[in-house]
Automatic annotation (TrEMBL):
Cited InterPro entries: DUF2063, DUF2063_N_sf
Organism annotation: Methylobacillus rhizosphaerae
Xref: Pfam families: DUF2063
Protein name, entry field: Putative DNA-binding domain-containing protein
Residues of the Putative DNA-binding domain: 3-85
Length: 94
């Protein structure tokens, strides 16, 4: 059940886990996105400016959905975001 919760708030599924409301789960998802975007933007403001809002938002959503980020601290997210960008770059090169 916890796995279903994490999959939803990371955007990997649209299925609301049993025992939760849609509005509550959307709130959790928004809070995760907000926390991640604030932390990442603090380190990469130029990237956000270069990409523009739609591409920046899509990149963050992909990061949150696909990343291997396991730390409980938002401050650790910078290194995982860099690793995510490297993986995405490698994927585009192949």
């Amino acid at each position: 059940m916890a796995e279903d919760f994490y999959l939803y708030i990371r955007g990997a599924t649209e299925t609301i886990p049993p025992g939760y409301t849609e509005s509550g789960m959307r709130t959790y998802r928004h809070l995760v996105f907000l926390g991640a975007s604030q932390m990442i933007e603090a380190h990469f403001p130029e990237l956000r400016q270069q990409l523009g809002e739609p591409a920046w938002k899509a990149l963050l959503q992909a990061f949150i959905r696909q990343s291997a980020w396991t730390s409980h601290y938002y401050g650790d997210m910078k290194d995982e975001f860099l690793a995510f960008l490297a993986r995405e770059s490698d994927r585009e090169d192949t």
